[in-house]
Design goal:
The complex is a heterodimer of chains A (233) and B (366).
Chain A lengths: L5 H34 L5 H13 L2 H12 L4 H10 L7 H25 L3 H9 L4 H30 L2 H7 L9 H10 L4 H33 L5
Chain B lengths: L2 E9 L2 E9 L3 E5 L6 H9 L6 E6 L2 E5 L4 E2 L7 E4 L11 H11 L9 H8 L14 H14 L4 E5 L7 H17 L4 E5 L2 H7 L2 E6 L2 E7 H5 L5 H4 L5 E12 L4 E6 L2 E6 L8 E7 L3 E4 L10 E14 L2 E8 L2 E8 H7 L6 E6 L7 H8 L1
Parallel strand pairs in B: 3-9, 3-10, 7-8, 8-9
Antiparallel strand pairs in B: 1-2, 1-4, 4-5, 5-6, 10-11, 12-13, 12-15, 13-14, 16-20, 17-18, 17-20, 18-19
Helix pairs in contact in B: 2-4, 3-4, 4-5
Classes of the chains: A mainly alpha (233), B alpha+beta (366).
Chain lengths: 233, 366
């Protein structure tokens, strides 16, 4: 039987906590940004789109360093968070969640956008004629029909978060119990002599976790698909 | 007046410049594809914005470019049945039906789910998903959904266009019942003359973005100058008739209208039933003397009230049969040979087969 050592359990629990928070906190913003980018004409739309996608193409270290500059205790956002909410994110697990969210954001927005673009606008017009204003139409028609994409985006961001390493280690370092997520732990074990065995075990845990996430998304997508797609045959 | 409309809009090279008013009952906006029919009702629904103009429904101004009024679509109290059903795929039939009612719940109306379900025969469909319905069923649900939003007016954009004739036969009676209940005015876009002839009280004839004629459907269809717009082959007139006799032996039904009677193959409707029949201009022959020894059953005495001869080999005549007007199409040669002229008394020979009220009879069964 595969039993987790306390170190492994700690890394696994931390990774799950970071990933869940990263997805939960960024999902509403991801939906909003995807909606804005597909449905609202505003100046600077391509700049916003570029900014959102930047973490996808930048070296993760660069993103991590930028986060450190912004969210460090002396950075503009970090200082503001500490002054206003007494929240410190630098070198905390919350910072790891922020790094994960930023890195996963482009994937999340892309998936939601694709799904939004495939929603039949004529259904929204029909909802308007039935008395639903734009907000209600979004909540009762657009959002439910976008659910498969939102789900896909959330799973992608979740998986990305589980694997996030470069930005995290640059931004919040590798502190046991605080920011030592699975990838950080694997990295640590590969750096110490005789740690190969431990690193391999953690890799297997990571594989199992990712597979579980993918399977869960598959099952949910099938369930949603049955509800929203025309039946064939 | 339930709808007053006067709008202009340029769409690329196409210029829409339409104005009409219409009242209760079913008003058909009729014209060929591309005449601007759908644009007009989309403007009433608020889905397209006119460049200039004014739209009022039931005295309530929905759009006025001078006063800068533009009521958003969800506030217009319009029921819209689209050409495609546009049912929400993620909701059941029942939820689709109730979608609009919820947003309009504060509006007083006697339209209940039960009455609409009964009117359209939706009971067995309620728990199902739209994807499992046939085309005709979907369109019935779409009509019910629009009605339950408690609209002041019902807009229908070729609701039968994507259906085969059996499915049409399933929905037409429902639309007729709605029209005859008379609770809600209906604007019905169509390019099919048979639908218009059967359903409409008032006709708005559109061509190239303009309104070419408006009036009672029988009047407009009997006008000589319009066959080029309505389609020459389909040209004809409508008579509102009443069943006054049933001949069991020969299986014939007698129809009476102010001006004369017609005998047609048996129609299974009770005596006294009112219906409309359509006489194609191409199925009416003219004689200057009372014809004898003839297989044609229906000979109507009337007077020529107009002749139009600008259309190739044919001449179109309008005939007054009492107060009714019918259209006849004969060759120019016949017109010359018979020496026909305005005001002349003639006999119109109506081939029985030209009277096809079977479609009307569906009413009773449906």
């Amino acid at each position: 039987m595969f039993e987790l050592t306390p170190v492994e359990a700690e890394a696994l629990a931390l990774s799950l906590r970071v990933a869940c928070w990263a997805v939960a906190a960024s999902l509403p913003l991801g939906i909003f940004v995807a909606f804005a980018l597909t449905r609202i004409e505003f100046p600077g739309r391509s700049i916003v789109s570029g900014l959102v996608h930047l973490p996808l193409v930048l070296p993760p270290v660069v993103t991590g360093y930028a986060l450190l500059l912004l969210f460090g205790r002396h950075g503009p956002l970090g200082a503001w968070l500490e002054a206003s909410f007494d929240v410190v994110v630098a070198f905390r697990w919350t910072g790891a969640a922020i790094a994960s969210a930023v890195m996963g954001f482009p994937l999340m927005v892309r998936a939601i956008r694709l799904s939004l673009e495939s929603v039949d606008r004529r259904l929204e017009a029909a909802a308007h004629t039935l008395g639903a204003n734009r907000v209600w139409t979004f909540l009762t028609v657009t959002l439910p029909l976008t659910l498969p994409g939102i789900l896909a985006g959330a799973i992608l961001a979740f998986a990305k978060s589980l694997g996030e390493f470069g930005a995290t280690i640059t931004f919040v370092s590798n502190i046991p119990g605080e920011t030592r997520t699975l990838p950080n732990a694997i990295y640590t074990f590969t750096q110490v002599p005789g740690g190969e065995q431990e690193a391999l075990r953690l890799c297997l845990i990571a594989v199992a976790l990712s597979m579980a996430a993918l399977l869960a998304s598959e099952i949910m997508a099938r369930f949603l698909g049955r509800r929203t797609q025309p039946d064939v045959g | 007046m339930s709808v007053e409309l006067s709008v202009r809009r340029r769409l690329g090279a196409f210029q829409l410049d339409a104005a009409f008013t219409c009242g209760a009952g079913l008003t058909a906006i009729f014209g060929r594809s591309g005449a601007g029919k759908t644009s007009v009702i989309n403007m009433i629904a608020g889905l397209i914005k006119p460049d200039r103009g004014r739209i009022a429904v039931d005295g309530r101004v929905l759009f006025d470019s001078d006063q800068r009024i533009d009521v958003p679509p969800h506030d217009r109290q319009i029921g819209y049945v689209f050409q495609e059903d546009r049912l929400f795929p993620h909701l059941s039939v029942r939820q689709n039906l109730l979608f609009g009612r919820w947003f309009n719940r504060r509006r007083v109306s006697s339209t209940s789910l039960e009455s609409v379900v009964a009117l359209l025969g939706l009971e067995p469909l309620l728990p199902r998903r739209p994807s499992t319905l046939s085309g005709g069923e979907k369109q019935r649900v779409a009509i019910g959904r629009a009605l339950l939003a408690r609209p002041r007016i019902l807009l229908m954009d070729e609701p039968l266009a994507s259906l085969d004739s059996a499915r049409k036969g399933e929905i037409m009676p429902a639309i007729e019942r709605l029209r005859d209940e008379g609770r809600i005015p209906i604007l019905y876009v169509s390019h099919a003359l048979d639908e218009v002839a059967r359903l409409a009280d008032t006709l708005v004839l559109m061509t190239d973005g303009r309104v070419a004629a408006t009036g009672r459907v029988d009047d407009v269809l009997s006008r000589l100058d319009l066959p080029p717009l309505t389609g020459r082959y389909e040209a004809g007139s409508i008579l509102r008739v009443r069943i006054t006799g049933q001949d069991e032996r020969f299986a014939l039904t007698t129809l009476t209208f102010p001006g004369g009677t017609l005998r047609v193959p048996r129609i299974d409707r009770p005596i006294g039933a009112e219906l409309r029949v359509r006489l194609h201009a191409r199925d009416i022959a003219i004689s200057t003397k009372p014809p004898e020894a003839l297989s044609v059953l229906n000979v109507l005495k009337g007077r020529i009230t107009g002749i139009a001869t600008d259309s190739g080999p044919f001449a179109e005549l309008t005939l007054a049969i009492g107060p009714a007007i019918i259209l006849a199409r004969i060759t120019k040669l016949s017109r010359e040979t018979l020496g026909l002229h305005d005001g002349q008394e003639v006999y119109a020979l109506v081939k029985s087969v030209a009277l096809d009220p079977r479609a009307e009879a569906v009413n009773e069964r449906g």
